[in-house]
Amino acid sequence: MILCGTDLSVASENALKAAAAFAKKQSRELLLVTVLEREEASAQMDAEIRIERDAGELRRDFDLSVETKVVTGVAEEQLLALAKARGVALIVVGAEGRSMRRRALGRVPDQLCQAADIPILVVRSADALVSWSRDVRPLRVLVGSGLGDASTSALTCVSSWSDIALTIAHVA
Questions:
Q1: Contact at 8 Å (CB) between 84 and 116?
Q2: 154, 121 Cβ separation under 8 angstroms
Q3: C-alpha to C-alpha distance for 105 and 108, rounded to whole angstroms
């Protein structure tokens, strides 16, 4: 299963498409999750409608199974807990979030990358991933490798992907 965290903003659209592309290419189910900061009935209902609309578009465009979930709490904590409970292989999130900061990561992707023990894909653009999922072209992947566990995990994750052109870079 692939989990995609979305804040339901325009900035999340690339993450949704990228997650769907991965799910399609790897024949996995997709779980879309949005996390609300506090419980509020109207916000919950609005989020459920919006996330289900996004799921419907992905089901139609990518022909895959998409489940949705709206939870309350701290986004990165809820996404990691849900990923662990569901045995998720990959978490996909957008790079920018609602703030649309172009050069820096948003708070949630930054926190996820620091805390996660499963692979996190932070997405700025989904075009190459969508083309890859539709067998239009191979995916070009660059993995920055060090000597630690994170590098080993990244290489293990990428090694299961088909149709890729892999470059591994190590700076000493």
A1: no
A2: no
A3: 8
Kindly give, in sequence order, each residue whose CB lies less than 8 Å from that of residue 67, ignoring residues fewer than 6 positions away: 29, 30, 31, 32, 55
Per-residue pLDDT tens over the stretch 13-57: 999 999 999 999 999 999 999 999 999 999 999 999 999 999 999
Residue 75 to residue 112: CA distance in whole angstroms: 9
Which two tokens mark 57?
Answer: 């578009």
Contact (CB, 8 A) for 88 and 3:
yes
For the whole prediction, is pTM greater than 0.70?
yes
For 90-142, how does the pLDDT look when each residue is reduced to its tens digit (9 = 90+)? 999 998 765 555 555 678 888 888 888 888 899 999 999 999 999 999 999 98
Least confident of 64-78, 93-107, 145-159: 93-107
Q: Are strands 90-94 and 66-72 parallel, antiparallel or unpaired?
A: unpaired
Specify the residue for token string 């989020």: 47
Residue 164: Cβ within 10 Å count: 14
Determine which helix (DSSP H) or strand (DSSP E) holds 92, and give its type and residue range: strand 90-94
